[in-house]
Amino acid sequence: PPPLFPGNTYLGLQRWGDAVECFDKAIGLSRDYSFAAANKALAMFQLGQREEAIRWVTVGVGCVQGFRVWG
């Protein structure tokens, strides 16, 4: 299966490091993989890497064409 699916399983098991590895593989397959970037952000947050998590949320949002941030 694509690496996104095991990554989601690892998120459910709270195996954050394993999840990050899977999401990195998915992102390596396609730089436009917004779900992988967002899920990597979640795993990074759970690992206590807050700044890196924020960076990956930004990457995920950037992957979605036409996305607007409303404030």
Key attributes of the depicted protein:
71 residues, mainly alpha, flat
The oligomerization state is single chain
String of helices and strands:
HHHH
Nearest-angstrom radius of gyration? 12 Å
- How large is the share of residues in beta strands? under 5%
Mean pLDDT across all residues, rounded?
82
Largest sheet: none
- How many DSSP-defined strands? 0
Task: State the share of residues found in helices, binned by percent.
Answer: over 70%
| Alpha-beta classification | mainly alpha
Please tell me what the overall shape is: flat
By DSSP (H or I, 4+ residues per run), the number of helices equals 4
> Which residues sit in consecutive blocks of at least 5 with pLDDT less than 50?
none
How far the N terminus sits from the C terminus, by CA atoms, comes to 38 Å
List the helices and strands and how they pair.
Blueprint: H1 4-12, H2 16-29, H3 34-46, H4 50-63
Helix pairs in contact: 1-2, 1-3, 2-3, 3-4
Write up what this structure looks like:
The longest helix has 14 residues, at 16-29. The chain is mostly helical. 70% of the residues lie in helices and 0% in strands. The protein has helices at residues 4-12, 16-29, 34-46, 50-63. It contains four helices and no strands. α1 runs parallel beside α3 (34-46).
What is shown here, in short?
By secondary structure, the chain is an all-alpha fold.
